[in-house]
Amino acid sequence: MKSAHVSLPAWVSIGVAPLFNIALALLLSGLIILLIGENPIEAVKLIFVGAFGYDEAIGYTLYYTTNFIFTGLAVAVAFHANLFNIGGEGQAYIGGLGIGLAILAFDHALSFWLMLPLMLCAGALFGAAWAFIPAWAQAYRGSHIVITTIMFNFIAAALLVYLLVNVLVEPGNMSPETRSFADSAHLPFMHEVFGWFGIAVTRSPLNVSILWALICCVGVWFYLWRTRWGYALRTVGHSERAAVYAGIRPQRVIVVTLCLSGALAGFVGINELAGVQHRLLLNFTAGYGFTGIAVSLMGRNHPLGIVLASLLFGILYQGGAELAFEMPAITREMVVTIQGLVILFSGALAYMSEPWLARVYTLAALGFAQTRQTRET
Amino acid sequence: MAEWYTLVLLTLDAALRVATPLILCAMAGLLSERSGIIDIGLEGKLLAGAFVAGTVAAVTGSAWLALLTAVVVSGLLSLLHGFACITHRGNQVVSGLAINIIVSGLTVVLGIAWFARGGQTPSLDAAARFMPIEFPLAETLRAVPLLGPVYAEVISGHNLLVYAALASVPVVYWLVYKTRFGLRLRAVGESPQAVDTAGISVAWLRYRAVLLCGLLCGVAGTYLSIAQNAAFARDMSAGQGYIALAAMIFGKWRPLPAMGACLMFGLLDAIAIRLQGVEIEGFGEVPVQLIQALPYVMTVVLLAGFIGKAVAPRAIGIPYVKER
C-alpha cells in the first residue's frame, strides 16, 4: 500500500466503515437476485414484511435472533483474546447434548425451578468441555485453534449421530430423536408470558431464552470491560508478551476464554431444545454457529453490536423464509450467501474500504478547513 | 479366488475413488500453505468446481469444457482469497470461511433458479462425463493369480481424473522441491522478509501459489460431479475439503505423506461404508460414525504433538507488510 496510513476519527472507523462494508455485501446480494431474474427491491420489501408484518413473524424473527446472540457472543469473546473459535457449531451441538441428557435424567423428578438452573449449567458445562480440549491443545501443545475446532465440529456431528441412532433414540421412533421432555423442562413461550399479563400474542417459537440471551450480553460486557479477568483477556488479545510482562499467564487466559466461549455457544440448546423442540434431535444447530462468526464480525465484537447484527440476521432468516415462499426462484440459501458476503466484506476485506474512506475524509476535511479560512478572511 | 481377497481388493478400489478428490485438494492446500497462505476455503472451491462442472456438462454436454470452466471458476475464487489476504492483508481464516459459506449458499440458490430440481443439476449421460478407462488386457490378466485381480480391480477401470490425481503428487513434489519456483515458494512461507530482500515479489509468488491451489480444487470438484457421480447434488462436497486439509496437515505439509494420509482416510471411509450394519460377535454393531470421525480425531491428536510433530510453515497466516 503506497498511501501513508491516515488515522480516521473514531466515528468513521466504528460507524461509517462497517456500514459501508455491509452495504457492499448487500449490494452484491442484490446483484445476485437480479441475476436470478427477480427484483431486489421487491425482495427487500418481502423480507421486511415477512420479518415484521404480523406478530407471529416478529416472534420468529426474535427467536432466530436469540440463537445468533449466543453464537455471536461466543465468537466475540474469543476474538477479544485474539482467538478464532470456529467451533461454535460443535460446541452448541454438544451443549445441547448436555441439556438433553440432564433433562432426560431429571425431568420427571424435579420441578421447573430446579430444572432451569440445571439445564443452564448442563449446556454451559458441555459446551465449555467441548471447547476445553482445543483450548488446552492451543495453549499448552501449540496446535492451531482454527484447525482443531473445525475438526471438533465434525467429531461432534459424528458423536451425536452415533448417540441418537444407537443409544438415545426413543424405542419405536422411526427418526433418530429422544422421547419428548416432560413439562417441567419446557421453557415458557413468550406468548404464554404475555398471556399471564392478559396480552394476547399469536403463538410463535419465541421463548424466555431471549431474556437469558440479553442477560448474557450484559454479562459479557461486564466481564470484558469491568473485571480484571476481562482486562487480562483483552491484554492477551493485544499482545501475549505484554501480558506476560504484566504478570498474566496467557495459557490460563486462553483456556478460560475458550471455555467461556464454548459455554455461550452451548446455550443455543436452551432456546432450541428446552424452548422449542422439547426433545433432542439431529442438526438442531442448523449452522447457527457459523452465523455467529458473521454476527460477531458485523457487530464489531461488542455486545451491543452483536444484538443489532443478530437482529439483522434474524430478519434475514425469517424474512428469507417468507421470501422463498413468495418468490419460488429464490431459496432460503440466499440468506446463507448473504451471510458469506457479510463475512467477506466486514471480515476479510474490512480494510479494503479504509484508504477510500480516508481519501474522502481528508478531502472533506480539507474542503471544510478552506471554506472556513475564506470566510474568516 | 478367495472371497476375502476380492473383498479387500474391492475396498481398496473404493478407497482410491474416495481418496481422489482428497489428494487433489490436499496438493492444492499444500501449495497455498507452503507459500504462507492458510486455505480453509478448499471446501468451498471444491463445491464450486463441482457445481460449475455439473452445470456446464449438463448444458453443453462436453466433459472437457466442464473441466475447463470449473478450473477457471475455482481459480477465480482463489484469486478472491488472494485479493483479500495478500493485497488487503485480511484475516486468512475469515476469508476462507467466507468463501465456503458463500459457495454453499450460492450453489443451491443458482442450482434451484436455473434447473428447479431442488439444487441438483440434470443427470448426465456417459458422453458428458469422464468414464472409467479399461487398461489393456485387464480382463485377460484377471486370471493371473494374486496380481491379476489387483491389476483388473484396483489399477485399471478408473476414470481419467483418478489417474490425474495420482499424477499430481509427483508433479507437486517436483514443483515444490526441484524447481526455482518451489524453492522460492518454500522460502516465502518461512521467511517472506528474506525473499523480499532478495528482490523477489512476495505478493506475486503468493498469488501464483493460491492460483495453482484453485486450479487443482477445480479438478477435484469436476471429479465429484461429472466423474464419480452423474450430476451435482447440493452440498455434495460434504466436508471433503476439510478432510483434505486434515490430510495435508497429517502429512506435515509434504506431498508424499499427504497423499498417504489421503489414501488412509479414503480407506477408513471405504471400510466404514462396508461395515455399515455389520455385527461383530461379542462387540455388537460397528459404530460407523466413529470410524468416519477417526480422520478428524487423528488430526487433532497429531496436532497436539502426540504422533510426531507437525510444524507449519513459519510465516503461515501472517500478512506480509513491507518494511518502510
CATH fold naming of chain B? ABC transporter involved in vitamin B12 uptake, BtuC
Distance between the termini of chain B: 71 Å
What is the subunit organization of this protein? Answer: heterodimer
Strand content of chain A: under 5%
> How much helix, percentage-wise, in residues of chain B?
55-70%
Number of strands of chain B: 2
Number of helices of chain B: 13
Q: What proportion of the residues of chain A is helical, as a percent range?
A: over 70%
Number of strands of chain A: 0
* Whole-angstrom Rg of chain A: 23 Å
**In order across it, which strands form the biggest sheet of chain B?**
1-2
Average of per-residue pLDDT values of chain B: 88
Any idea what the shape of chain A is?
Answer: globular
What is the structural class of chain A? Answer: mainly alpha
The number of domains of chain B is 1
CATH C-level category of chain B? Mainly Alpha
Topology diagram in text:
The complex is a heterodimer of chains A (377) and B (324).
Chain A: H1 10-36, H2 40-52, H3 55-80, H4 88-106, H5 112-140, H6 145-168, H7 190-196, H8 209-226, H9 228-238, H10 240-245, H11 250-266, H12 268-277, H13 288-298, H14 303-326, H15 333-348, H16 353-376
Helix pairs in contact in A: 1-15, 2-14, 3-8, 3-11, 3-13, 3-14, 4-5, 4-6, 4-11, 4-12, 4-13, 5-6, 5-11, 8-9, 8-14, 9-11, 13-14, 13-15, 14-15
Chain B: H1 3-34, H2 42-60, H3 63-87, H4 92-115, H5 138-141, H6 147-155, H7 160-178, H8 180-190, H9 192-197, H10 202-228, H11 240-250, H12 255-274, E1 279-280, E2 284-285, H13 288-303
Antiparallel strand pairs in B: 1-2
Helix pairs in contact in B: 1-6, 1-7, 1-10, 1-11, 1-12, 2-3, 2-4, 2-10, 2-11, 3-4, 3-10, 7-8, 8-10, 11-12, 11-13, 12-13
How would you describe this structure to a colleague?
- The complex is a heterodimer of chains A (377) and B (324).
- Chain A has 377 residues and is mainly α.
- Chain A is 75% helix and 0% strand.
- The model of chain A has no long low-confidence stretch (mean pLDDT 90).
- Chain A has 16 helices and no strands.
- Chain A has two domains: 71 residues, no CATH class; 264 residues, ABC transporter involved in vitamin B12 uptake, BtuC, CATH 1.10.3470.
- With 324 residues, chain B is mostly helical.
- Chain B has one domain: ABC transporter involved in vitamin B12 uptake, BtuC, CATH 1.10.3470.
- A two-stranded antiparallel ribbon of chain B has the order 1-2.
- In chain B, strand 1 and strand 2 form a beta hairpin.
- In chain B, helix 2 packs across helix 11, helix 3 packs antiparallel against helix 10 and helix 8 packs across helix 10.
- The model of chain B has no long low-confidence stretch (mean pLDDT 88).
